[in-house]
Write a structure and sequence with these properties.
The protein has about 300 residues and is an alpha/beta fold. The chain has a single domain, classed as NAD(P)-binding Rossmann-like Domain (Rossmann fold). It is about 40% helix and about 15% strand. The chain has 12 helices and 13 strands. The strands form 4 sheets. Strands 3-2-1-4-5-7-11 form a 7-stranded parallel sheet, with helices on both faces. Strands 6-13 form a two-stranded parallel sheet. Strands 8-10 form a two-stranded parallel ribbon. It starts with a strand and ends with a helix. The relative contact order is 0.14.
Length: about 300
């Protein structure tokens, strides 16, 4: 069912701000729940209603849709015990608070699009889809608990999609962190370069969130990745080609672990080969199904 009134969390983040603009252009009334109202106001349309807490939302305000993208960024620094705690608090505890908020109202949302990540599956080299089993590890535990928290909306009668998101390519995020080294010709594969990178173009990410909202038969896990995952070595080669720079300088696994600690093993040296079967089964059309055209489009816009 198309959204008319929408509560968005994480809307000032990389993905959220683009989705927010798209929703406003579609005529949806958007309320953004954000910890920093001033910062959010600078990156979202002025017609968005900004709330600093759930208590700021009027009792008679009804949302037919919730898009929950809130979460402490995983790739912004060393995974200390304190930061790992924030990963859980900002995802699991916050989502439980959202469920509790709507459980105290008579009108729960019709649909909830809730964040998760392909880390749910754990590392592996074999292709996985939404029905695949997972390998245990920190990333799986975090994503599993996040999805369990969001499943509380199902008990309220909401249709829930769990977005198992891959590497989102755009002007921020992983690609932005790679570009300086690659522009200098210092980029290359990490470790042995055989680990898979399941990626998606920013515009396709925004479009698939809308697709999940608009398709009432779609529920449960949804892999938010392009249909053509690549190895880290292939990714490096394509990025070098798009920048017209060499991309053959590898970062040994031991160096990655020294620089990034546990994050290196969880996010950089291991991967997942993820296929978006739920999206394809509901006729979602990717604008950027192949990595080469995705990178060319992004680097042309950002050059």
């Amino acid at each position: 069912m198309p959204a008319k009134s929408l509560l968005l969390t994480g809307g000032s983040g990389f993905i959220g701000r683009h989705f927010c603009r798209s929703a406003i252009r579609s005529g949806i009334s958007v309320t953004l729940l954000t910890r920093n109202v001033t910062a959010a106001a600078s990156v979202v349309p002025e017609t968005v209603r900004l709330c600093a807490s759930l208590e700021d939302i009027d009792a008679d305000t009804h949302f037919d849709t919730v898009v929950n993208l809130a979460g402490e960024p995983l790739g912004d620094g060393w995974w200390s015990a304190a930061r790992k705690g924030k990963f859980f608090t900002s995802r699991v505890d916050f989502t439980e608070a959202l469920v509790d908020f709507f459980s105290r109202r008579n009108t729960p949302p019709k649909q909830v699009i809730s964040g998760s990540a392909i880390g749910y599956y754990g590392p592996g080299t074999e292709p996985v889809n939404e029905s695949s089993t997972a390998t245990e590890g920190f990333s799986h535990t975090l994503c599993h608990r996040w999805e369990v928290a969001a499943s509380g909306f199902e008990r309220l009668g909401s249709r829930v999609c769990y977005l198992r998101t891959g590497i989102v390519l755009g002007e921020l995020g992983a690609l932005a962190r790679m570009l300086p080294a690659f522009r200098l010709g210092l980029g290359g594969p990490m470790g042995d370069g055989e680990q898979y990178m399941s990626w998606i173009h920013r515009d396709d990410m925004v479009a698939l969130i809308t697709h999940c909202i608009d398709h009432p038969t779609l529920s449960g896990p949804v892999n938010a990745t392009a249909p053509a995952p690549v190895s880290n070595r292939q990714f490096s080669r394509e990025l070098g080609r798009a920048l017209r720079r060499p991309a053959a300088l590898p970062m040994p696994a031991v160096m990655a672990r020294l620089l990034f600690g546990e994050m290196a093993d969880e996010l950089l040296l291991q991967g997942q080969c993820v296929l978006p079967e739920a999206l394809l089964a509901t006729d979602f059309r990717f604008q950027y199904p192949e990595l080469g055209i995705a990178l060319e489009a992004l680097l042309d816009k950002n050059s």
